[in-house]
Amino acid sequence: MNGHANGHANGFANGGAENIDVVIIGAGISGINAAYRVQTKLPDYSYKILEARGDIGGTWDLFKYPGIRSDSDFYTFGFEWNTWQKDHPIVPGSEIKEYLDQSVKKADIRRNIRFHHKVLRSEWSSEKKGWTLAVEADGHTRYIHARFLIVGTGYYDYNNPLKANIPGLDNFKGTLIHPQFWPEKLDYTNKKVVIIGSGATAVTLVPNMAPTAASVTMIQRSPTYIYSLPNSTRRWWSFLIPSFLQHKISRLAFIFLQRLTYLLCRKYPRQAKAILRMHSRRLLKGVLPVDPHFNPKYNPWDQRVCIAPDGDFYDALRGGKATVKTGIIKNVTENAVELENGEVIEADILVTATGLRISIAGGAELKVDGEKVDIGDKFMWNGSMIQDVPNATVILGYTNASWTLGADATALLTVRLLKYLDRRNAVAAVPRVADPSALTPKRLMDLSSTYLDVAQRLMPKAADQYPWKPRSSYYVDIWQAMFGRIDEGLESRMSIGEILDLPIALLSLPIVGFLALLTGPFRARKQKLNPQQTVARTLLLHVGYSILRRVVSRFSPLQIQSVSPSTTAEYKIYIWKKGLKDHTVDLGGGAKGHWLGNKEAKNVLIWIHGGGFACPANRGYFAFFGKFLSEMQAAGKDIAIFVVAYTLIPAGTYPTQLRQSVSALRYILKNTNRKADNVYFGGDSAGGNLVLGVLSHLAHPHPEIEALKLANGEEIGGATLFSPWTSLETVFPPQDTEPLGDLIHPLCAKSWAGGYLAGRARDNYTDARLAPLDWWHSVPVKKVLVTAGNYELLYPFIDDFQAKLKAGLGEDKVEYVVGQGEAHVAPMFNLMLGDKVETEQGKKAKEFFRELI
Ligand SMILES: Cc1cc2nc3c(=O)[nH]c(=O)nc-3n(C[C@H](O)[C@H](O)[C@H](O)COP(=O)(O)OP(=O)(O)OC[C@H]3O[C@@H](n4cnc5c(N)ncnc54)[C@H](O)[C@@H]3O)c2cc1C
Questions:
Q1: Exposed (0-12), middle (13-18) or buried (19+): which is 770, by Cβ within 10 Å?
Q2: pLDDT in tens, 85-143
Q3: Whose Cα sits closest to atom 35 in ligand 1?
Q4: Which of 196, 320, 417, 562 is the least crowded, having the fewest Cβ atoms under 10 Å away?
Q5: Is 89's C-beta closer than 6 angstroms to any atom of ligand 1?
Q6: What is the position in ligand 1's atom list of the atom closest to the CA of 29?
Q7: What is the DSSP string of 229-267?
Q8: Which of 99, 113, 403, 474 to probe ligand 1 with, by most ligand atoms within 8 A of CB?
């Protein structure tokens, strides 16, 4: 990797900045675990942990309040690779810190930690293909370059506590404490302590302060479920099993039981509530009523259920020095807290255990290509990467199970992602939401603590669809991390291989063109010797087709896109040359519609371009549209064209492009108030595939696309399909002649179809040719023209399809024309290559519309 590839893993390069393969921010539980995963699974990678503090542990180094401990079992809160070896599952903070120290030592991670290194800013540069981190260290700002970033900064602000919104708090003259900043020397012997809050911290403080303090009162606005758990896993039979095995079993058992209880509580909330109330009543033994103090308004696991190890919290209440008050604080005076119900609770010490101030990414500014990333606006890919942020995972553990389980799922996913990029020789991966309007936002963390509610705006969002769904459970997430689909929703930039290969590929084009020029004059002879041999009509087309065949078979989709103007750019060039006005519509979800002609025209032809879902529409398309419009106008036909610019592969995969095509039709019908029979479709090759998908969707709504119903009896005016790609074959019958008369090559099908399907199964929307005949019975379209060139590779498939379409839709509704000696999508591509002779297919299409309109 970096160290090996360019020899400056730990040295200084790039103008004094250090280069590291993976930078992990934060040496808390998440950062340490990620470091272990990187160093064991990616031994060739250089990595460093940058830690703002002077020690490891994060939370477990910072929090010092009395009794601080884990509130979930430590078999699952500890690391999978260093299972907790003691019998008590709930572990004091000091022991957690020792365990973390021992783990770091065991795995020899400390040498890779830079303490007192606070990351101020992380900026991704697409040009440099990496991150530059501005790091505050020793009073200076240093710069570090990294290829990949793992953000293990936890979820709260280390320096600023959450301001407690308590009336009159400033009046208080006693000692006011936030648990995050506990004064180590605080003496609370015989002091009256009031704790405001009802979360895990308050529930821990009560039993731990009660023996020393004069009194401890927990004031809660709303109660929490508090469950007593025996704090030992030792059983009478434990001596039969070796200790290490016993604790591994404990880990598995806790993972399973934790999940099971969570699911049961969610499924049977009433019963769970009743059990928890009974549990509290039994342990309270009458010292306090369950109502209202132990009767939360919400269901178990709407918020985290608090654990009381060996029932310590209930013991403290029964001991007489601790109590709970439930009510709203009216005012805080200089020595007491007044509740709205009139109760006054005296206090020498007031602890505001009201939550933490949420901060994602440790407060460091995040920028991508100079633009600040507003994390709250973004979706989270697989619970691990932020939408539109390349090469960075953000570790957020579980809230309904041990944090570390979720942290490990992200660490393992990161490792797999890096391996995946390496295998493809790719530089970067970026999570992209192809169609945000298709996603329903959900909370990332399925809990509703007050401080999480407050901070929703700062948190990334989840959605209702994979891979943007919130984390579900450890096993599902670990499976997903290790074996699940990793490319869904990820846009990989051109790999290093593709970048290096591009000039060679480009250089091969003039050579291919030159050879075609030399051999071109002999093509007629070739055909004479073998009548099956297809050849281009002119030398110009022969050279052009040869180059195009080379492009589609030699260039990857990303390489093609890197050297061709996008459909939108091509439209802009065209209107600029013709002196036309730009009438572009944002269709949402990354798609655009470009008007040509009078957009107020009565009729509109929605054109969905082809190019294997991989290539944009080229200038030949716009030349064709220009001619089409002027001929229509000359014939007195009132029609405009609406060209759809959809997301290409691999940025978008099926059914994104279909959804975008449907949204074009929805826009025309709903926003421009046109009747369906004034709306026509045109599509070529992969665009033909999409047109058929849209027509199918009208009759059989695609399960992942919002249904679009036409009014009863309404039909789309007509559709023309030039060389439609009607089934996504990747294997073609063996050819005994060279495809000299066509411009596509069998080799492109695999990467284009594969890129579009991205592992999904083919269906009637992707493979219209394979749909049963009755599929077409209800498809609402008046007439369809199918065209093909008899020299094109897809000819036999199109021939087969049109026969099926005639049988399904009706003989009288389908017209079929074969352009003799014509290539794939010849009406556009011949124009692109400068051949102005009208194709049979193009001519027929114009006749078709002249008759229809
Ligand atoms: C008191 C308390 C108890 C908890 N108990 C449990 C529990 O029992 N079970 C459970 O599942 N969860 C628990 N949690 C929640 C969570 O699991 C823990 O906070 C967990 O330790 C988080 O680990 P982490 O490594 O992700 O983050 P942290 O422990 O917060 O560590 C983050 C590290 O990143 C560093 N950092 C932050 N910003 C920067 C920056 N800009 N540059 C460099 N370094 C930076 C910090 O200094 C820190 O060392 C608890 C949380 C708290 C606050």
A1: middle
A2: 999 999 999 999 999 999 999 999 999 999 999 999 999 987 777 899 999 998 999 99
A3: 26
A4: 320
A5: no
A6: 25
A7: E-S----TTGGGS-HHHHHHHHHHHHHHHHHHHHHHHHH
A8: 403
